[in-house]
Design goal:
CATH topology: Rossmann fold
CATH class: Alpha Beta
Strand order of the largest sheet: 1-2-4-3-5-6-7-8
Largest sheet: 8 strands, mixed
Number of domains: 1
Shape: globular
């Protein structure tokens, strides 16, 4: 793990105040917080493999932590605009960008909408959009929203997490990122009321993928759902500069359960930029 000093603060952008944690030393790396388990990427970003070679800026998106909620309905494109405005506020021309699950969609949209702001792109288990799995994924999301409406956040959260992650996810979260379980309960409304609808409404086409200029690493988990394997295959064909790594003996919660392996894969991919090969 990293021993770098970690500072969390509210950063004023043109449209919002966003909570950001910064640590490490080197070229900038933007780690975009995912849905529900917003700090899921922190064990990876804090690993000394990354934080010793990068200045990490970990973003808690709107509605999470101390970041302001979004007044209008959330969208993937809106989250991507927030990321651009955060880079502006931090006076960063371009950064390496990492996202996992929901925030992989945000990172991908960011790279398509503002290709000059993304040096290298790491997408960990991106959700189905271009693949044939999209229909099944959307139907699952609609069922989740129906369960939330009928049974409430607590039950819907457990069912969601048991379907995507290790059954010990609460223990993993609190061990690796103390206080995260309480944050999940606190931020559940942002997930069910904003993030899930935004993801179900997201549109990302082959033309959008063609606009991504950054070299892209697609990271998958060997034991994850076929949805994510199918999407990686589609993105490998659609993205101009894509490569792939699969972490063995891992599921969709690999950022928590296999943080060191994931950090190593990302650091290896980012190394050419660190050495000046941009």
């Amino acid at each position: 793990m990293s021993t770098a000093t970690e500072t969390w603060r509210l950063v004023e952008t043109d449209d919002a105040r966003l909570e950001v944690g910064s640590f490490g030393s080197g070229p900038p790396l933007l780690a975009i917080g995912t849905a529900l388990t917003v700090d899921e990427l922190l064990p990876v970003a804090r690993d000394s493999t990354l934080s010793s070679a990068r200045t990490v800026h970990a973003l808690r998106r709107r509605g999470y932590g101390a970041s302001e909620p979004r007044p209008e309905p959330r969208s993937i494109a809106g989250d991507a605009r927030d990321a651009v405005e955060l880079l502006d506020a931090l006076e960063i021309d371009a950064a390496d960008v990492v996202g996992v699950s929901y925030s992989a969609a945000v990172a991908l949209q960011l790279a398509a909408d503002a290709p000059d702001r993304v040096r290298r792109l790491c997408l960990v288990e991106p959700p189905p959009m271009l693949s044939k799995a999209r229909g099944d994924f959307v139907e699952s999301g609609r069922r989740l929203l129906a369960e939330h409406a009928e049974l409430g956040s607590a039950v819907a959260t457990e069912r969601f997490m048991h379907g995507y992650a290790d059954r010990h996810w609460r223990l993993d979260l609190d061990r690796l990122v103390p206080g995260s379980v309480a944050r999940v309960d606190q931020d559940a409304s942002a997930f069910f009321d904003s993030d899930v609808p935004a993801l179900l409404d997201w549109s990302f086409t082959g033309d959008d993928a063609a606009a991504v200029a950054a070299p892209t690493l697609l990271v998958g988990a060997a034991d994850s759902r076929d949805w994510f394997r199918s999407e990686r295959a589609a993105l490998m064909k659609a993205l101009p500069k894509a490569s792939e790594v699969v972490v063995l003996h891992a599921d969709h919660s690999l950022a928590l359960t296999h943080a060191a392996e994931l950090a190593h894969a990302i650091a290896t991919f980012l190394e050419p930029v660190h050495l000046g090969d941009e």
